[in-house]
Amino acid sequence: MKKICIINTGGTIGMRAGPNGLRPEPGFIESQLALMPELSSPLMPEITVKEYDPVIDSSNISISDWLKLANDIQESYDRFDGFVVLHGTDTMAYTASALPFMLRGLGKPVVLTGSQLPLSEVRNDARENLKTAIILAAGYEIPEVCIYFGDLLLRGCRATKFSATSFKAFVSPNYPPLGSAGTRMEVFEHRILPVPKGDGPVVEPLKSQEIATFRLFPGVSVEVLENVLRRPLKALILESFGDGNGPSQNIAFVDCIRRACDDGILILNLSQCSQATIHQTVYETGAVMEQAGVISGCDLTLEAALAKLMHLFTKPLPVDEVKRLMQQSLVGELTEPKN
Ligand code: ASP
Q1: 333 in a structural domain
Q2: How confident is the model at residue 103 (pLDDT cuts 50, 70, 90)?
Q3: Under a CB-based contact definition with an 8 Å cutoff, are residues 225 and 256 in contact?
Q4: Are 294 and 238 contacting, i.e. CB atoms less than 8 angstroms apart?
Q5: Are residues 277 and 174 both part of a single domain?
Q6: Mean pLDDT of the 304-319 span
């Protein structure tokens, strides 16, 4: 019989109403699982639940929680066929983007899921997400960290939360789904990473880094940007327009980003359009970015870009090496530019 470990970090799925709104309820998930007859079907795996103390709203997730998750998965790796991580939706895509960099050599499924409505509600998306995540983690060869939510299986480091209200809360704007679970369950093998060689994942720790994001808009204050681009900042994710364009006629803006790049601050260009690939050569307004020393973030999500920068700067690597690796796919997080 297959064996699955459910790690419950918290999130709406196991919440109940408190005096100040929904809050995670310790022990609730386990008590609810015991009441689900479907889970005792011979088609289901043996389930072990590990609940974190405290269970949290994912807005409170921290890098130490990511490290705990990575270590727990690594330590119990040989005892289970797959892992289901219950997690709040608010930051699920951040965790699903960080874990692949931290669990290098992962050969089993790690499926993050949660819900928009708690299991305690009569109408909810929790039961379906939970059961299907368990089936996916137990029955398929998916050597990846993924998100299963609202009938889609997505690569974790390609996913982003798209809706705060729909049961289909997540999208993967620049990589197709790894699977879907409508009336038929389908996993698209050709989109899944190859099974790595080796005995299991090695945990690569990740530390908080001096990184910021900055969104361009018409009329943006260069003075504010200048203040952001000060040490100890190591890297700035510049959220640009369309293909990676910026206000090229604003000399102060162009000078400001050029000075920062010359000073060794890594500026990564990401588009404000979630479905996009950065091309800094299509328009003159993109070419100025390239000429100033801004590097392309390709088709990374913001979540994956942050996780990757944290990962590379934690190693630590010199900025030129970080720039080089930002153009390469390390864990399936981006589509490499064609030269
Ligand atoms: N605030 C909740 C959380 O992220 C939202 C959810 O789970 O859907 O924990």
Answers
A1: no
A2: very high
A3: yes
A4: yes
A5: no
A6: 97
Residues 6+ apart with CB under 8 A from 34: none
- Contacts for 38 with CB less than 8 Å, ≥ 6 apart: 44, 131
In the reported structure, the alpha carbon of residue 159 is separated from the centroid of ligand 1 by a whole-number distance in angstroms of 16
Q: How many Å lie between the centroid of ligand 1 and the Cα of residue 308? A: 23
Q: Percent helix, strand and coil across the chain, each rounded to 5?
A: 35, 25, 45
How many A from CA of 164 to the centre of ligand 1?
A: 9
**Predicted local distance difference test score (pLDDT) of residue 63:** 98
pLDDT for position 326 = 98
Q: Reply yes or no on whether the pLDDT at 338 is more than 90.
A: no
Those residues with Cβ within 8 angstroms of residue 23's Cβ, 6 or more apart along the chain or in another chain: 15, 16, 57
Pocket probe mutation, ligand 1, options 8, 59, 115, 167, max atoms within 8 Å of Cβ: 59
Residues with CB under 6 A from ligand 1: 10-12, 57-59, 88-90, 114, 116
| Percent of the chain residues topping a pLDDT of 90 | 99
Nearest CA to ligand 1 atom 3: 88
- Whether residues 160 and 255 share a domain: the answer is no
Is 90 exceeded by the pLDDT of residue 14?
Answer: yes
CA of 11, closest atom in ligand 1: 9
Q: Which domain holds residue 257?
A: 211-326
Is 9 an annotated catalytic residue? no
